[in-house]
Structure formats: structure tokens, C-alpha cells
Amino acid sequence: MGARLSQPASPRTSLARDIDPQEIAALERAGAHDVEHAGGAVPRVRKGRGSTLNPANRFEAQSAEPFDDGWQTLAADFTDLPPLPTTLIRDASRSVISWNQSPDIGFDRAVNPYRGCEHGCVYCYARPTHAYLGYSPGLDFETKLLFKPDVAELLEKELRKPGYIARPLALGSNTDPYQPIERSLKLTRAVLQVMDRFNHPVTIVTKSAGVLRDLDILQSLAARNLVRVYLSVTTLNADLARRIEPRAATPQRRLQAIEVLARNKVPAAVLAAPMIPALNDAEMERILEAASRAGARSGGYVLLRLPHELKQIFEDWLVAHFPDRARHVLQLVRETRAGALNDARFGQRFSGTGVYADLLARRFARAARQWGLQEHTPLDCSRFAPPPRAGGMAEAQMSLFG
User: If you average pLDDT over every residue of the chain, what do you get?
Assistant: First the structure.
């Protein structure tokens, strides 16, 4: 096997049009990984990981790709690949609140304790952001994770700035705040402790039942109408969930988390997201019903979108896991995205356009009414008040010279 340098190429067209499913299966049994064959690369699934490949960073001038040297050794070289370890990297950011003016989302500020996400959701719209850090949005996004060890201290500093006006702050807007490394690092818990002390409203989006670990803080915030927790439920099919989001909590555990939150008077909501045509969209009503029965009182949905490298990553995943329907899925996505695989225009990014997208929107609206998922009580922003500094007035005065 050799490696060659090449200039970045535009994303391939649907691999399902180039490769016969039987050839894919045969090569996967042989252990092939990204093997050049029949006009495209045949992906190999790594256990416990979502992406089947590690595409080049779009900002790099050159990229490397494997090719067979004529001895038919390429497939053999990729046989029995060891599991990819997770690497933690310290993030030295000096600020932690990210701001936005997007009309598509209901918040203008967010905190993400982590960059990259070990859940490995293959459809994650945040994957392309890893390219800004010099990594691939593919397997690197799942295995090279940046963490902000001083996130709570930096957040507190920003909340104390003169003139700061409180609005709901989003946790989990980019990557999951309760991904597996949170069990040991506890950075999300530290952020919630700041929110609690400052009486600051916060929303949480997660795929993890690990949110229940912080039930004590969530109950405290909920008693003052300062929190809402959204559990993202992509599918009720455990097999599909394992394939599409391999290290996230099972669908049943997420529904149980909604039940526990509701029982403890913590406002819980459900996100049926993303809805993927011909893959999980038929489950929308069942997801909303199950979440409502568990105690959710509001909900939302997002239609699949595939920005930048995500187009190639998702295509290859489809070919590896669902070669029989890959072409159909991608065609339906194009029907909702004006003939492309992504449409970044405001007002259309999350819901799409066209007949298929309109039908999905009507189905959601009907199911939300049927199952009582229309409660949208605003969080209380009037309680915000920075607590006294630990060192008293002297320390506060000295901080002016810091």
C-alpha cells in the first residue's frame, strides 16, 4: 500500500450509484477500508465509531489518501484495525460564551465545554467545525476532543462584566455537554453551578441520560423557572441508534431520563432530530408520543442538513450500513434542499423546502397538538444577580487591577 498527496476535491456524488452492494459486502468481509474500487471509496465500519472515514480538512492545501501499489495489499493492510482511542486536548480559550444573531434559533448565547463529541453521531451538523481546529470532521471529531478546564471560572468572569443582560444560555448547542468524558471531567456540572449561583436561565440539549447526575442542581434551577432540558431522540429503534449514534444513550434511557426529570418537576422537552428521509422520519409520531407519555411538555424537530464535509461522511455511512436505500435517501434529501444536500439560507436550514419538507412540518404540528407538546413557557430572566465575590469587597477592589 502507498499514500499519495492530492489537491482537495469536491465531494463525490452518491457512491450508491457507483458501487454494487454485493461488492461492498464482499470487500467489507475482506476488511477493506476506504479501498478504491468501482469508482469510489468503500467505507469500513469501526466498532464504536460513527464515521466510516476521516476526510481531509477543507482548509488544508494538500491531503493524503491510500492507494493500492499493485500487490493487492491495501485491503489486507486495513484488516483488523485496532479501536481508535479517544484523545483529550486542553482548550486554552480565554472566553467561553459564543454569541449569534441567527433568526433560526431561540437563543443568542451558548457555552460548549467541549469541542468534538464522542457520541459519534454521523449526521452531526457540528462536525465541520472541527476543521477550524485543524482536525478532520470525520473520525477526528469523535476521537480528538478538546475540553475547557477553566470553563466555569471564565464564564463567571463574563457574567460579572458591567452591563451584562441575562437571556437564556444554551448548553449543548454545538456538542453534547453530557458526552462520556463529562463523567470524569464534570465541566458541565461546574457550568450549571455557576448558573445556579447567578440565577441565570439555561437550556440544555443532550442525548445522554447522564443529565440525571445533576438532578440536584436542575431541581434548584427549576424551582425558580430557570431551566429546560431537551432530550434529543433520533429513533426508537435500538439497532439504528447504535449504528447512527454509537456512543449515545439508548433511546429507552433517554425516555427514562425525560420521565425522571418530569417526575422531579424539571421541565423536559423532546427533539425529534434529525429527521432523515426514508431512514427514521416514519418514526416522528411515535417518538413524540413516547416522549409525551414519559412527561415531555414541549417538542421540536429538525430536518437533516449536510454542510461541508458532512455530505461525504454521511454518504459513506449510508453506503456502509444501508447500501440498498442509500440512493433513495440522498435523493429525498435533495428534494428538501433545492436539489442539493444542504441549504444554508436562514429560515430553511432546519425545516427544508418542497413537498416532502412541508408534509413533515404538517405531521409534526399535528402530532405536537395531539400529544400536548406545545408548552413554551419563557424562562425567568429577571432573577439574574451576580453573587458577592468570595473574598468580599477587598478582593473585588483588587480585581480592578487584574
Answer: 85
Between the alpha carbon of residue 141 and those of residues 40, 67, 171, 179, the distances in Å are 23, 24, 19, 13
Confidence grade of residue 207 (pLDDT, cut at 50, 70, 90)? very high
Q: How far apart are CA 213 and CA 226, in angstroms?
A: 18
Domains of the chain (ranges plus CATH)?
2-77 (no CATH), 87-370 (3.20.20.70)
**Residue 246, burial from CB neighbour count under 10 angstroms (0-12, 13-18, 19+):** buried
The tens digit of pLDDT for each residue in 225-235 reads 999 999 999 99
CA dihedral 324, 325, 327, 331 (to 10 degrees): 170
Beta bridge partners of 275: 303
φ, ψ of residue 39 to 5 degrees: the values are 90, 10
Q: Is 324 exposed, middle or buried (0-12, 13-18, 19+ CB in 10 A)?
A: exposed
Question: How confident is the model at residue 66, as a pLDDT?
Answer: 60
Do residues 42 and 27 touch, judged by C-beta distance below 8 A?
yes
pLDDT tens digits along 65-78: 666 666 666 555 55
